Amino acid sequence: EPFVADEYIERLAWRTPGGGSRGGEAFDPKRLLEEFVNHIQELQVMDERIQRKVEKLEQQCQKEAKEFAKKVQELQKSNQVAFQHFQELDEHISYVATKVCHLGDQLEGVNTPRQRAVEAQKLMKYFNEFLDGELKSDVFTNSEKIKEAADIIQKLHLIAQELPFDRFSEVKSKIASKYHDLECQLIQEFTSAQRRGEISRMREVAAVLLHFKGYSHCVDVYIKQCQEGAFLRNDVFEDAAILCQRVNKQVGEVFSNPETVLAKLIQNIFEVKLQSYVKDQLEEHRKSDAEQYLKNLYDLYTRTTNLSSKLMEFNLGTDKQTFLSKLIKSIFISYLENYIEVEIGYLKSRSAMILQRYYDSKNHQKRSIGTGGIQDLKERIRQRTNLPLGPSIDTHGETFLSQEVVVNLLQETKQAFERCHRLSDPSDLPKNAFRIFSMLVEFLCTEHIDYALETGLAGIPSSDSKNANLYFLDVVHQANTIFHLFDKQFNDHLMPLISSSPKLSECLQKKKDIIEQMEVKLDMGIDRTLNCMIGQMKHILAAEQKKTDFKPEDENNVLIQYTNACVKVCGYVRKHVEKIRNSMDGKNVDTVLMELGVRFHRLIYEHLQQYSYSCMGGMLAICDVAEYRKCAKDFKIALVLQLFDTLHALCNLLVVAPDNLKQVCSGEQLANLDKNILHSFVQLRVDYRSARLARHFS
């Protein structure tokens, strides 16, 4: 524990008699002082003793340090001597090694010619046997020495090729015959070893055959036997992948050039097995069933490229990507050359069939939409005047738009885009994708949507028709939904194929043109539909509103809150406002509702101008306008509500006391109106001709 002086003194005092109150003893300061003095002396003696011991140890440490330093110096001198001896030994070893190498070179220079002479002597001996026509050497008669025989006959074969034919034709023939026999024996031995699964024997024989002309035949035999029993299932691609995986593990143990052998196996699989399989699958449907042909072509090409991706893991040489691409191209080139023509032809016939089947289900004979100068003239007149040129067609509520048809067309086009992406050459991809998009525009936008818009426009009744059913809003609703689906496919499936090509701007322009063309017809149809709505309201007001509504015979006995005409008009408006909201989205809803609201206000304004109002009739007119204003709130358009607020304020002029007319006219809502408008409302009062009222208003 650490030394604490205060605690040490406390313990000393506590142990000293009379140093505290222990045991009831009285405190004795003299005795305590005496004890402290004695203890201090003891501590001084102890300190002197410890100090002497420390000095002695320091002297001893200095002495040992000097001895250690002296010893280290002696060791350094010994180390330097040893290092000098080592250098001398290293130089001596290098000198001896140089002598040994020189001696080895001299021995090799003497031994190599000797070995060559011995080898030449042996070959001359074997050559003499062929020359005599009788092979006596054990190497040719013993079947177990086929490896040595192969080495000898291969060398003799090379020598024989250098000899003149006229003098050595017979011996050359014999050597060639023996060469061929040994080659066949080696290939047979390799085949047998492969069937037995003896990898080491296969490796030995392959190494011997490497110097023979028939080495390639050995590789062919290996490839052929590898494929025996490998393609037993229906999935030839999976079988090929498993076979290559198995052979890849084995080929390196057998051949000295495994990448070449494996590449040759893969080439054989592609050019024989896969090409035959692809041809069988495609030729069956090539002329009879375009849909199945395209599906099979896409599936087979995809599975072939997937197989190629798996094979990229193996060592096939330097440029395996190009090698595999050429193999795939060799299989499919005849089918890919005219792929897009088949695709476009199928898409055209399939789309036409989908549309025709739909119109047949509706028992509808599609009418032709005229083209040329007269039709263009009609179109320009209709756009400028909004007049319905030609007879109105009763569509019986049919929009001639079908989401099922649209989904089918988009699905066919989606599959065509996927096939186009996979099967088209990268340089032709944007062009081919544009052709497919053009087919979609033709059949979906022109033949289906545009036809439905034309039919819908022709089916809109005139504004003075009674009880007309307005189905064009249903056309708008469905066309809006179809546009969203069309735009989604454009972004999801076409854009990735053309995003980095000049075709992008062409496709965007084509899409913009077709949408603008349809928007013009939609705007025209909506405008005529709004006119028709206003016409229906006019009929309701004309049929239901009576002059006596606003000039009742008994002013004191009016029990209704608003007129029957008002109730029916408001019901009609609410129904169609809701229909407009369901038929459109975004800002289009507000735009159309604002237009309808403005026309609705104009109609009510002009309608109120047709009647004269008694005091009670004016109150009833105010109640009607209040109900119209409540109806206008459903539009949720500030301008429309403001118009009806102003109209409501104008109606107050019908009932206000003559003395208060000027005050009301200068109110917040009427102060900015033209004085003629105010005057026209005041003139509707039955008491207007009284001198008093005319005087106050003037």
Structure overview:
This protein has 698 residues and is mainly α. The protein folds into four domains: 126 residues, no CATH class; 173 residues, no CATH class; 155 residues, no CATH class; 149 residues, Methane Monooxygenase Hydroxylase, Chain G, domain 1, CATH 1.20.58. Helices cover 76% and strands 0% of the residues. The protein has 24 helices and no strands. Helix 5 packs parallel to helix 7, helix 8 packs antiparallel against helix 9 and helix 15 runs parallel beside helix 17. It is flat and about 150 Å long. The relative contact order is 0.03. InterPro entries: Sec10-like, Sec10_HB, Sec10_N.
Characteristics:
mainly alpha, exocytosis, 4 domains, 698 residues, transport, Exocyst complex component 5, 0% strand
Q: Summed up, what is this model?
A:
The protein is an all-alpha fold. It folds into four domains: 7-132, no CATH class; 139-311, no CATH class; 366-376 and 395-538, no CATH class; 548-696, Methane Monooxygenase Hydroxylase, Chain G, domain 1 (Up-down Bundle), CATH 1.20.58. Helices cover 76% and strands 0% of the residues.
